[in-house]
Design brief:
Rossmann fold; 10 helices; 6-stranded antiparallel sheet; alpha/beta
Length: 377
């Protein structure tokens, strides 16, 4: 799989731009602040319908414009597919495949698969559990696009349940009408069913990717491991002994029932996939708080490279995107990374200083300056 053409209209700093791409390595070079990351952000958005930089769509639309368009021509197994996303902040986004409108934008997920590594990814090691949950869920969706709907349903149900718990908490303190706990029972069932589906998929994903993370960390930072990942559920450990959905659903129902008084007291859902974490360890110590900056960088890179290997093994090698990565690596790790990624079908790299990029990755070169993208070789 590779991206053959990228077209942007009113996206970030670009009023309009068209970039023709080829398999192999492409380097986008230019000073900071000229739009390099905007290009690869658009490609990542085309694949996942999320940004690796912001949580909402509004900043993606050029100032003063009502909407933005991201369009890509994808080549997979010698077949071409045109994907177009219209970003409408405050309203539903739209999607088209081969110029045919889709009922929902998320139905375009899976047309393009990417793995993007950026400086922000150190949050996978140093940041909050939400960063690591997002890593798992985005990889789930990349492998199986229907999980986008599962995530959406879970978040909707969680919001409704939290609203009921908050109402019950206010009523208990004498400040409002009592909540109908029968309604809460219904939402408990919805949350348990959808949460079990998401939790089961995460557990299976972690089992699949665990050996790949250790392998890729050893490739990037030999001798620094082992790099270990463990899924930490908010449920009691004895209730999470397998990824069986029926067992997990029963465990969620039982845990919420036992914790109802506490949840009403606090007015929030305390158990479920939204409270889970992915623990990262280096040589038996938690990476968060113990890993150096270089080790954190290497671990985050290992997580992304492991995702790349897993998606490639599924079939349909993803586009690999490296945003300003080489500036943070010493010479030895640059060469090791270059060796790992040079065999990929398509690698897109951004760099402020082209000399930072190892020789073996000096492919097609695009200069990016003030909203203009020019191919120079």
């Amino acid at each position: 799989m590779h991206l053959a053409q990228l077209s942007l209209v009113e996206f970030r700093s670009y009023e309009i731009v068209d970039v023709a791409l080829e398999p192999g390595v492409s380097v986008f070079a230019g000073p900071n602040g000229q739009g390099k990351t905007n290009l690869i952000e658009a490609i990542g958005y085309l694949a996942s319908q999320t940004s690796h930089r912001v949580a909402i769509d509004a900043p993606l639309v050029r100032a003063g414009s009502p909407r933005a368009v991201v369009r890509g021509e994808i080549v997979r197994d010698s077949r071409k597919l045109l994907v177009e996303l219209e970003i409408n902040p405050g309203r539903a986004n739209r999607a088209r495949l081969n110029r045919a409108a889709l009922p929902r934008a998320r139905e375009a997920l899976g047309a393009l698969r990417t793995v993007l590594f950026a400086p922000e990814d150190t949050a996978l090691v140093k940041g909050d559990p939400s960063d690591r949950r997002r890593y798992l869920d985005e990889l789930l969706v990349a492998r199986t696009p229907r999980f986008a709907a599962v995530r959406h349903d879970y978040e909707r149900i969680l919001k409704q349940r939290n609203a009921l718990l908050k109402t019950a908490a206010i009523a208990k303190r004498g400040g409002g009408h009592a909540a109908d706990l029968r309604t809460l029972d219904v939402w408990d069932g919805h949350l348990a069913r959808t949460g079990a589906e998401l939790l089961s998929a995460r557990l299976e994903l972690v089992e699949s990717i665990r050996p790949l993370v250790d392998k890729t960390y050893e490739s990037v930072a030999p001798g620094g491991g082992p790099a270990v990942i463990e899924y930490r559920s908010s449920l009691p450990p004895e209730s999470v002994t397998s990824s069986d959905r029926a067992l997990l659903e029963a465990a969620l129902v039982a845990t919420m029932a036992a914790a109802r008084a506490e949840e009403i007291e606090r007015g929030v859902s305390l158990y479920g996939p939204h409270r889970d974490d992915l623990l990262l360890k280096l040589a038996s110590l938690p990476a968060k708080g113990y890993a150096s900056h270089g080790e954190s960088w290497a671990f985050a890179l290992a997580l992304r490279l492991a995702a790349y290997e897993l998606l490639s093994a599924d079939g349909g090698e993803p586009v690999l995107i490296l945003d300003d990565v080489f500036a943070e690596l010493d010479t030895d790790r640059r060469e090791r990374l270059a060796e790992l990624v040079s065999r990929a079908e398509q690698v897109l790299i951004t760099a402020a200083v082209p000399a930072d990029i190892p020789e073996r990755l000096q492919g097609a070169r695009f200069d990016v300056m003030a909203g203009e993208v020019t191919r120079v070789r």
